[in-house]
Amino acid sequence: KSCQKPVDKYIEYDPVIILINAILCKAQAYRHILFNTKINIHGKLCIFCLLCEAYLRWLQLQDSSQNIDPDDLIRYAREWDFYRMFGIASLEQTSFLVGIFIALWQMRPEMLKTKSDFSLLLKALLLSSYGKLLLIPAVIWEHDYTPLCLMLIKVFVLTSNSQAIRVTLNLNRMRPWLAIFIGLVLENGAICLFRKMGWNV
């Protein structure tokens, strides 16, 4: 009321500019998307990102077994491999999110005291994982730098996750990264467990 200006400047901005600022990981853009818009695509986005990740793993699995057999049984087995990769990617994502929630709850239990706090943080983490959509172009335009591209995509997604946690819970820069580190430890623990069980991850 005192300055006669909107508190959230992004209300007046074009959605393309908001998206560009979100890609640049600006905290105010994240705040606008999470609190002042009614975006409700986090579930669909999560499924689509998991499908992208499963496809990438499935493609790498196909490359490792080059012998092509026209038999239908082999084709169905390969399709089953895709579903298995989707399940593994889902379990890894779940363990990553559980690690983040446990870490944040251990740091400050008062931050996540209600169900709405949990759901808002989950929504923020799922929306901020949109960088995983870049996996598909990285696979389609395969070149010598594909491993580097995949690593940069991972760093971008983790940076987005950190910014989403920071904005949602109003934290300093260090705590979100610590929570993400614990989430990664739990995710890598799940990967090691799958490998010990003999699953190709």
UniProtKB/TrEMBL annotation:
Does the record carry tRNA processing as a key word?
no
Which domain of life does the UniProt lineage start with?
Answer: Eukaryota
What species was this sequence derived from? Struthio camelus australis
Which UniProt key words apply to this protein?
Endoplasmic reticulum, Lipid metabolism, Lipid transport, Membrane, Transmembrane, Transmembrane helix, Transport
Protein name per its UniProtKB record: Protein ARV
Manganese recorded as keyword: no
Q: Name one GO cellular component term.
A: cortical endoplasmic reticulum
Q: What does this protein do?
A: Mediator of sterol homeostasis involved in sterol uptake, trafficking and distribution into membranes.
